[in-house]
Amino acid sequence: MPTSALKRTPLFDIHQRSGARLIDFGGWEMPVQYSGIIDEHNTVRQAVGLFDVSHMGEIEIRGPQAQALTDFVTTNDAARLAKGRIQYSGLLYEHGGFVDDILVHKIADDHFFLVVNASNQEKDYEHIGAHNRFDAEVDFASERYAQLAVQGPKAQATVQKLTQLDLSAMRYYHFADGEVCGAPARVTRTGYTGEDGFEIYVAP
User: Burial level of 18, CB count in 10 A (0-12/13-18/19+)?
Assistant: First the structure.
């Protein structure tokens, strides 16, 4: 695929100016490394690393029966989620095969925030919409969010400098809405690298 056809995150110009090695990652022109894989791996394991994961997709489900729809289309029990909690879950086809693996965030009884894989986001949205026989609205929200992941043993200390949210009180697979660097943000704690970490969702 020619480079001009690739999608780009809001931070693309920063990656380019910073000397990132850019590759085609599922239709996105993404940084694969800066200083080198081993150096960056060790940095995340020993200190902290910052990842641009703005290519990930976001889908919001709202309405009186938002929980019923979320529960119907996902494999985990969304009805058990308390506000501010996250589930790892999946979307399945009728024959049992996976559409995608996803994260389900409960904002409120009538509002769920789903984070899906970049290459599947349109497919996931269509799949959920096709099964929406509930009093709920499914919103393809990816263009409204950029996402940064701060990962590593120093992730908490790093992000805490930038927010008034008490990150020490935020348990694994929990989230809170607040501000980061003065901007409205959703901060989640679902570190995916094997280290502790936070994901920050902000407007692009």
Answer: exposed
Strands 111-116 and 98-108: antiparallel
What strands, in cross-sheet order, belong to the sheet with 49-52? 49-52, 146-151, 197-202, 183-188, 175-180
Query: Is the overall model pTM greater than 0.90, yes or no?
Result: yes
Structure tokens at 158: 């790093």
Contact 168, 154 (CB under 8 A): no
* C-alpha of 153 from chain center: 20
pLDDT, tens digit (0-9, with 9 covering 90-100), for 36-69: 999 999 999 999 999 999 999 999 999 999 999 9
Closest CA to 99 of 86, 111, 116: 116
